[in-house]
Specification:
Distance between the termini: 40 Å
Largest sheet: 6 strands, mixed
GO molecular function: ABC-type polyamine transporter activity; ATP binding; ATP hydrolysis activity
Number of strands: 20
Organism: Pseudomonas silesiensis
EC number: 7.6.2.11
Bound molecules: adenosine-5'-triphosphate
Structural class: alpha+beta
Helix content: 10-25%
Order of helices and strands: EEEHEEEHHHEHEHEEHHEEEEEEEEEE
Strand order of the largest sheet: 6-7-8-3-9-10
Shape: elongated
Number of domains: 2
Keywords: ATP-binding, Cell membrane, Membrane, Nucleotide-binding, Translocase, Transport
Family: Belongs to the ABC transporter superfamily. Spermidine/putrescine importer (TC 3.A.1.11.1) family.
């Protein structure tokens, strides 16, 4: 794989507010990248800077080794799919898609062939004579996609393209997009603030916070080894428990009374331990914890059953902790009852904080 897009030291401010703070990012040919972060973290500003709709204050953006920082959007080898699809209402589906090649000087017959090929890629060949107003949201989204890929860009930018769709259609379109991207082999950069969506479709997720990149990695990596407290909290549900470490590698969690041998070297003396809810087991009142299991003792504060699983919220030494168990809860587990939670220390992920 070789680098397609290289973003180097990109900064952007709006007055005193720094929207992008020294962004460095390399994207490979054919990768599906998701920019993920809370509202206002700079995702759209970064996407618009790549597209050329916005000029960064400093830094360099290169595509295939060519510096495009000063090129207008239409001279960059990329295309953008917007949230509102931006279809031409007075043109049919076929005309909408053929518009791009026509603008590039391709003759009418050839442009229609290319448009039909693009429509076939998104499964809309039967609707080529319809006008956008006679299409469902999902169909309009596919037309917008066909229009964006018809000129075979090297890079496709997608700015929250599924946010207007209902949840079921959105989930279906996520998988369709993933398959389409694999078929085309074009790199996609997709913006969302929905972490489940990001984990479903991305080869690599770029987690952003307050204009900075916090972590770049595959979803499994980001979930199991978050690089910061922010990432741990933003991706999935997490119990963040303060810890102190001794020089010998022994960990003392703020809410557990027995020390845990981590076996790790070079631990920072304190920080947070990340423990995912699915790694906490609700122990039977009578059964002892297994030898490899650490135990927390507290009181149940809430039990939430969500069909396939149950969330058991507890208060342990003044801290709220959530455990996830499969199926329905045990009958003896009610709000106010004593609870014992067990976990394997191998599932603790430690994020040290410099003193
Ligand atoms: P969302 O998920 O809500 O779309 P985002 O992560 O895409 O958020 P951006 O649109 O990139 O966020 O905005 C980043 C920050 O820059 C925000 O605080 C926003 O208010 C600010 N901002 C963006 N454009 C401008 C502008 N033209 N003038 C002033 N501030 C702006």
């Amino acid at each position: 794989m070789s680098v397609l897009l290289s973003i180097d030291s990109v900064c952007k401010s709006f007055g005193p507010f720094q929207a992008l703070d020294n962004i460095h990012l390399d994207i490979e040919q054919g990768e599906f990248i998701v920019l993920l972060g809370p509202s206002g973290c700079g995702k759209t500003t970064l996407l618009r800077s790549i597209a050329g709709f916005m000029q960064p204050d400093s830094g360099r953006i290169a595509i295939d080794g060519q510096d495009v920082s000063r090129l207008p959007p239409y001279r960059r080898p990329l295309n953008t799919v917007f949230q509102n699809y931006a279809l031409f209402p007075h043109m049919t589906v076929l005309e909408n898609v053929a518009y791009g090649p026509r603008r590039q000087g391709v003759n009418r017959a050839e442009a229609r062939i290319k448009a039909r090929e693009a429509l076939a890629m998104v499964g809309l060949e039967a609707l080529e004579d319809r006008f956008p107003r006679a299409l469902s949201g999902g169909q309009q989204q596919r037309v917008a996609l066909a229009r964006a890929i018809v000129n075979q860009p090297k890079l496709l930018l997608l700015d929250e393209p599924l946010s207007a769709l209902d949840m079921k259609l959105r989930k279906r379109m996520q998988l369709e997009l993933k398959h389409l991207q694999a078929k085309l082999g074009i790199a996609f950069i997709f913006v969302t603030h929905d972490q489940e969506e990001a984990m479903t479709i991305a080869d690599r997720i770029v987690v952003m916070n307050a204009g900075r990149i916090e972590q770049v990695g595959a979803s499994s990596e980001i979930y199991s080894a978050p690089a910061s407290r922010f990432v741990a909290d933003f991706i999935g549900e997490a119990n963040l428990i303060g810890y102190q470490a001794s020089e010998s590698g022994e960990i003392r969690l703020g809410i557990a009374h027995t020390p845990i041998s981590s076996g790790a070297k070079d631990l920072l003396p304190h920080g947070v331990a990340v423990l995912r809810p699915e790694h906490l087991q609700v122990l039977d009142a009578s059964s002892p914890a297994s030898a490899s299991c650490c135990e927390l003792k507290g009181t149940v504060t809430d039990i939430v059953t969500v069909g396939s699983h149950t969330l058991v919220h507890s208060l342990i030494d003044g801290q709220s902790i959530v455990a996830r168990t499969m199926g329905f809860p045990r009958a003896d587990l009610v709000t106010g009852s004593a609870v014992r939670l067990g976990f394997n220390p191998a599932h603790l992920h430690l994020i040290g904080e410099p003193v």
